[in-house]
TrEMBL record:
Gene assigned in the entry: crtI
Entry similarity comment: Belongs to the carotenoid/retinoid oxidoreductase family. CrtN subfamily.
InterPro entries: Amino_oxidase, Carotenoid/retinoid_OxRdtase, FAD/NAD-bd_sf
Organismal lineage: Bacteria, Bacillati, Bacillota, Clostridia, Eubacteriales
Protein name, as recorded: Phytoene desaturase
Keyword Lyase tagged: no
GO terms, molecular function: oxidoreductase activity
Record has Phosphoprotein as a keyword: no
Taxonomic source organism: Heliobacterium mobile
Pfam families: Amino_oxidase
A GO BP annotation: carotenoid biosynthetic process
Pathway noted in the entry: Carotenoid biosynthesis
Amino acid sequence: MSNKQKAIIVGAGAGGLSAAVRLAHQGWDVTVLEKEPAPGGRLGAIEEQGYTIDIGPTIMMMDDVFRQFFQEIGRNIEDYLELIRLNPLYRLNYHDGTVLALPSDMKALLDEIKRVNPDDVDGYLKFLSQIHTRYVAAREKFIEKPLNKLEEFLTIDTLTGMYQLKTLNNMYSDISRFIKDERLRIALTFQSIYLGISPFDAPSIYTIIAYVEHGVSGVWYPKGGMNAIGKALVKLLREFGGSLRVNSEVKEILIESGMARGVRLTTGEELYADVVISNVDFPTSMEKLIPAASRGKYTPQKLESMTNSCGALMFYLGTNRRYDHLDVHNIYFTRDYKETLDQIFEQGQLPDDPAIYLYAPTRIDPSVAPEDKEVVYVLVPVPNLSSDIDWKTALPQFREKVMEKLEKAGLTDLRQHIEFERIYTPHTFQERFHLYQGAAFGLAPTLLQSGYFRPHISSENVKNLYFVGASVHPGGGVPVVITCGKLAANLILKDHHSDTISWPNPEMAG
Ligand SMILES: Cc1cc2nc3c(=O)[nH]c(=O)nc-3n(C[C@H](O)[C@H](O)[C@H](O)COP(=O)(O)OP(=O)(O)OC[C@H]3O[C@@H](n4cnc5c(N)ncnc54)[C@H](O)[C@@H]3O)c2cc1C
């Protein structure tokens, strides 16, 4: 019998796979259990009729996180992923007809800003000059630290970092200090929607996302789509001897005397391990997988009171023609930015004028669609399931509204050219991936749900139990969740006194 330490990971999302790969690389006996027939979770794909359509993530930024992940396990990222840097980053389409295609080159980007509003060039440069310090503080003092314990949080270093973040106002008002033109304010704040929060509520530190896209990493595309990252993680897991079981839904995490012992599947099968990591959305883990006596402060009332991100209404389309005017990433704003956001986030209703994000990867990657055809991925931010929208009744009419807007925006006769269509509402995200309230991006990163105040990686009540994923510190978005998996693996190695193998470990990395 093997005397390796054993880890069971519930869920093969980005966070679960990241932790699994790191532990398998360290010689642990790792089993990942995934309820769906395919791994990846939100980072997966719909693969049907010759189309490969990413389910969730499409925008790859912070490429250094991915490169470092591979490097630390002794692998070369280029052997697993073909990464393409995008130029332009994305095409922004405004209601007044302005089109802003933001170039990846800083000089050209400044020219583009000047073209829209010459008076804002100075303000933009001022924005850049102060955001760098905040970005470095966010990365080093928050994202890359587990912040599990109050004493870790209340250090001079972290408190100085908090001061450097200067995060008490919201993104929109922070950007408005530098930028006067509404179109440019929108261009520098819409990124909060990547985290499922309104820029009028998001802490101002999230303006670092625009900075990361414009000035730090740019925006990347992995050939085959973002799901290629999930596939690469599964490949790495297998190379390091870990195993993945699909169609294996966990019903309960087994806890005895305050210690995680293993899991029970819906089939009744029980598996035992030294540690259990739940990659299931944190509130769902608490609500469904952990017995009430071991939930600590996360009672049903507490979970109910937490702020969740918005939902996403998704149209995954395959069209029998191409729309050559599209870029890879296209955004269609609305006639009133704030009104649309308020309808979603404050009033919990479907917006009168939907904001639309459209992803057309076929533009640079013909491998994702049959010849001469196109993948059209359409994401519309909508309220999560805490609102009382009756999706069965509302969907047909709302779909027409979205299609009409796209047809007017140049996707001529779109409805006639759709030959493949799948629709995901917040109900689908809840049912398929067990996302609490169908919130597409997990717990919202409000100030009081960030850093030490976000659910921790190490369970506060149960020994040998850990959590990874978008609703756990450091938060959502694939690079951040990959970092979460790495932090979890480091904590486990430390807690189990097996942190003796340094990364990269040439012996195991092959
Ligand atoms: C529409 C959309 C667009 C997005 N766009 C971007 C983007 O452009 N860029 C970006 O970086 N991020 C983006 N994100 C966010 C990103 O997808 C997430 O932050 C990240 O993928 C979450 O990973 P996770 O580890 O939390 O796992 P999840 O994806 O939540 O995976 C959890 C896994 O656990 C499985 N599971 C659940 N319950 C059980 C159970 N009981 N037993 C076994 N398995 C179970 C699920 O099936 C799932 O596979 C987007 C998300 C969405 C939804």
